[in-house]
Sequence to fold (543 residues):
Amino acid sequence: MSLLEEDTGRKQIAQRRRMDFILHILFVICTSIGVLALMALMVDIIMDGIMRFAPDLFTNYPSRRASQAGMKSAIVGSLYMLLIMAPLSFILGVGAAIFLEEYAKKNRLTRLIQLNISTLAGVPSIVYGILGLTLFVRGLALERSLLSGALTMTLLVLPIIIVSAQEAIRAVPKARRDASFALGATKWQTVSRSVMPSALPGVLTGVILALSRAIGETAPLVMIGGLTYVAFLPESILDSFTVMPIQIYNWISRPNEAFHELAAAGIIVLLIMLLLMNFAAILLRNKYQKNV
Amino acid sequence: MGTLIDIGKLHLYYGAFHALKNVSMDIPEKAITAFIGPSGCGKSTLLRTLNRMNDMIPGTRIEGRIAVGGTDIYSKEVDVETLRKKVGMVFQQPNPFPKSIYDNVAYGPRLHGIRSKGQLDEIVETSLRSAVLWDEVKDHLKRSALSLSGGQQQRLCIARALAVNPDILLMDEATSALDPISTLKIEELAQELKDRYTIVMVTHNMHQAARVSNQTVFFLNGEVVEYSDTEKLFSNPRDQRTEDYISGRFG
Fold:
């Protein structure tokens, strides 16, 4: 009998290969279910909304007559909100992450804070709405304004940003810190010149993904009173406002079929915005990784 | 040869672990001193007390005295940033920053406030020349340091350490991750540098210590077993344990 022809061995290998094949198919099915569901959703929405996906949607204010309705105020509201919360949540979130990873002593207190942050990342968004209502709308008397909404959303995304920024900072090899300290750098010099440049792609990706979650959020803004009918653009951060998801929610809850088409068109706009943000995250990551 | 580093009755503890026991020695200036011994004997620990890199490990406690040029480096008057500027370090794994070759060397001078382009250019060139890397990289200083080979990266790290104008250069097994030819280049480089710098190196490789160093210290279990001229230590060791180690009976 030659070296490679052992009968029992061949049978057993055939069995192992069969198992491998079955699992391979199973994994493909798992992936397909997710992808197919997403495709079905997209196709359905595009079929419903493509007719309404026209310049009017971007230039008109909401209206009782579907033929004249648009979501100009909602799109602008979402963009303004993003403009306020992006720098706020970036500074607060990354600052907290730097403190926790680089400065804070690893003791029971920081572990407790860490646990709390991770828990907060999973708290339902409506709870942040209630918090925003108490804290900003009533407590600071900011009323149902763009600022209240942006601050509430900042709170909502902070834990997500902190956790993802911490992971990016932790992934920077210790050798890079040592190299910097050994040259006589202070903590901040090491963080700003050695750690952050390496961590930045990861941090930015986390921030953008958190922000893209925020622009799709509805519940907390309903809670603090983002209005459903806003026929003007906010002139200051203390004006009332609406955002895309609220407008979409409003249209969908009307009986008239024409408004459902508008809602679908609104969802297309929202999806495009999300895609653009995720694309920006990928571009940023690639750009910085090339420099590495 | 005068004494530059003076260590007296030094004890170091990591929590409950007594890592260095009653270590005393005088390290001469402008010479190469090698620390040898088996893994975990405390040689790297002692090296890292010389630029206080151990400060960053929680639970480290030190008793005794380390003076560099007559100043106690653990006294309150000493800024650790200044100390590390004067006592440079090269690590076991080449650890260049993911930046250009130029920016790697300029990193240290920039930390200490040098901004002028002309001055930085000059420092980068002198440091790279001192590390015998200039001719290989002068035409692509803007290229990423990570594109260099391991041996070149390690010489870049030496250039980076030299750029802040230190008096002492600590080398923590600086060749153990390199191939034999790169190792040889670093050893030759150390020989050249000892005219201008005091070099303390930790090495796993006894032959390296025998080849390049002037003084050799043999460590075992956190204690100094023997400290003498390299030639003497390798040809005529005083202690039986030293003889056993250098003849390869353990470690």
About this structure: Chain B touches chain A through 29 residues (CB under 8 Å). The first strand of chain B starts at residue 3 and ends at 14. The radius of gyration of chain B is 18 Å. The mean pLDDT of chain B is 91.
